[in-house]
Request: fold
Amino acid sequence: MLNKNKTSTPPEKIVDSHENQAVDQHFNFAYLDERTKRMIRRAILKAVAIPGYQVPFGSREMPLPYGWGTGGIQVTASVIGPSDVLKVIDQGSDDTVNAVNIRRFFQRTTNVQITTQTQAATLIQTRHRIPEMALTEDQIIIYQVPVPEPMQRLEPRERETRSLHGLAEYGLMHVKLYEDIARYGHIATTYDYPVLVNHRYVMAPSPIPKFDNPKMHMNPALQLFGAGREKRIYAVPPYTAVESLGFEDYPFEVQRWDAPCELCGSRDSFLDEVITDDQGGRIFVCSDSDYCESQQNSAESSSAPTAQSGLKHD
Amino acid sequence: MTNAMPLDTQSPILRATGLNKRYGDRAALIDASFELWPGEVLAIVGESGSGKTTLLNALAARDQPDSGSVEFQLKGGALTDIFTMTEAQRRLLARTDWGFVHQNSADGLRMEVSAGANVGERLMALGQRHYGKLRATACDWLARVEIDPARIDDLPRHFSGGMRQRLQIARNLVTQPRLVFMDEPTSGLDVSVQAKLLDLLRQLTQQLGLASVIVTHDLAVARLLAHRMIVMRRGRIVETGLTDQVLDDPQHPYTQLLVSSVLQP
Amino acid sequence: MYVAVKGGEQAILSSYQLLDQQRRGDPSVPELSIVQIRQQMKLAVDRVMTEGSVFDPELAALAIKQACGDLVEAIFLLRAYRATLPRLGSTQPLDTSKMVLDRRISATFKDLPGGQVLGPTYDYTQRLLDFSLLAISEPVEPAPKTESLGASRTPTQPTTGSISSTAAEALWLAKADSTSDDPNIHAQLEDEHFSPRVIDLLNREGLIETHQATQNDPTPFDLTRQPVRFPADRSTRLQNLARGDEGFLLAMAYSTQRGYANSHPFVGEIRLGSVEIALVPEELGFAISIGDIEITECQMINQFAGSKTEPPQFTRGYGLAFGHSERKAMAMSLVDRALRAAELGELVQSPAQMPEFVLSHSDSLEASGFVQHLKLPHYVDFQSELELVRKMRASPLQMPTLNDESGDEHAE
Reply:
């Protein structure tokens, strides 16, 4: 039977019935000390001033391991305030263990309101997906980034890539795309697809599927990117041009599925493949759990917010 | 045997003045000066340790000299000291108006990407965004350097030494530079392969009107390719002049020694 | 019928309980105490302090207990805790020549002022499992404290703390007389604990490179506050190495001994003992001692360099660690020297000589975190890859031919 978990319109609070709701008094609000937050905010300001440029920052050891979202957490911890409403997702879902873990961390250290509804959130921390529903000017989306340097796999030396960015020498990136087409007949990058930001810097959008790339273009929300292990912060300010790299005759294109979402019928969202039996039976389900639920609910009411267009960027 | 080249411009394309370079207490280059004219091929000849590579690296802005200047005639512009340019300007020059053919082709190629990508890279760096056109240009250049265009998707790893050098040349010439530096372009290759490569270089420099500075220890290379040559010894230029004249009638004792020690067939 | 997966929160809470049980083990067995770990697993505590960058044996022992003995995890706990600590000030540089020595050896001289002191070491044990340790011995009265210096001195040395008269020492004393305008020399001669460093001995003859502090003596770069940028100066590199994973540094050091960059190393000196920490509080304006810590210091003497104008001198590598950590200090000193290759005009060929390679991969937190992050869900990206591979297998590739100017239809 379908999971008809009706969500109400006002932002909901997830009440953790197993633990005390009180903020852990041993730590400052949002865990980091104020000096550290200030340092990170300065890096964020610099990043916003130079869209797509990777700003080095003094990343701290956090209670989660490097590689597990410490960059995103530090950015969130530096911008979050008591009146914020926080949504944390991983692979598009609020309920994956990693998202749960990070959300619990913020509950423990800030006691802010928590929501699973994209539209109700003021801050969204995400790993590897952009929510299907369009964001607004009042929102900040914070991406967890494993490898901030888009050319790292081609040129591991940071000294060299720093020069390449500084001189806007991006021939190497296009060489990689050329090779893909020569070898496979099309560009073989399906996630963490490199983009040109504000017509100047080539940026790694984090391992979001390329399906999500068009959402970054001219987005009304502020987009922040945190890489804790590699110690870099970068940003895409609201209403900034974000173009996925490609060739004129081999332009960037998004993924498509043959089937709609099994639960809500959506044809516009990114779908996860789920194996349902050991004969290899499979169904496709929305990766964005909040979107899927609201679509299911709207099947009863007439109006529903639809997904952002996943079609080719302008 | 040199080729008669019409040299019809007013100023040199490259001018070196009083170049000096020391490594520790060793003087590698002492007071080197010369001029190079558009379309002219100059050979820098000497034994190991003569300073010829140091001079080449100074000219190509790969290593800053301790004193002296290197001036290059920018397209449509005047002679400009390359070391007063910004790093960005020099790097742009190196990718467009200059070429550099390395002695070891692995230093001048991306060994892990295809021949087509190697040739097309400079164009992509300059903003060429049409895959089909890039590929057509690459095929065209491969044919010009006598590499079978069907090998456009092969990796340089699978090429012979001679083919790699030719690929390196194509990679450099695709942006139609006016000045090409070459560091011992034929050394390490079989004699027959050398001959073919030299022939190709001669053709291309003539067809494209390239100015070129070629460092070599092989007098035969100088004889075949260069209009003029410079002889270096212990960091100094000891003799300079038209290639035929220097080789047939050397004035400096060292040049005489060099010329006479070349085995005659 | 498919129901979307829920219950992540419950799963996490259950995992905490299981972890707790794993940590405690069989409840009928007495629980490990912090004091026991501190006392009887000293070397583990020392490593956790070194890589955790905090000298606090009790906290390190706590971390080890909490981490069930996984030292990399314990180091993580300590570092995370350190990140929350406020900074009160900076100490004066430690003076290791004033170290109270528990152990002091040199491979470069048979004998030297202060003597070779073997101290507590596994070096000359035979690695045979000691089954007598299976039994728990009853606690006993501690033995009367012996002079640590005298306990394992080499036979030629008297057991007092005074300076002995060996040939090498006589030589040193003779030289000292010739520079008798140095007031420190006489003071040092009278100081019972003074054992001059081998480095200083070689320095008297000008045989070893020295590094003068620069004129304005700038504050060292602080790796815990700012990210390393390349090129990194030596002080930054040493910081990184001091916090670096012992296993990684050991492997890198080993590689330099096997032809991947050889610097002909000799152990000039290894010192183990306690040094005093001094701090100059703003209010006082003079230095006060705030305690002492145990450290291990390794001075490696390496390949001499020189040129026509410069006479040849030995070059150096340096290693430093908290507690008794010789393997770490030695490995660190070899890697330090290797990373100086470019500065010393040597050809950079091997990974151990490449600062970006060594310093980017030395931190166990970064390495462990990123390697293990692969356990996190990656199914969205994998979905994209699956789709691509299926597509490529379904439609055999049409390779563009020479006549093909534009791209043919590409399935998307």
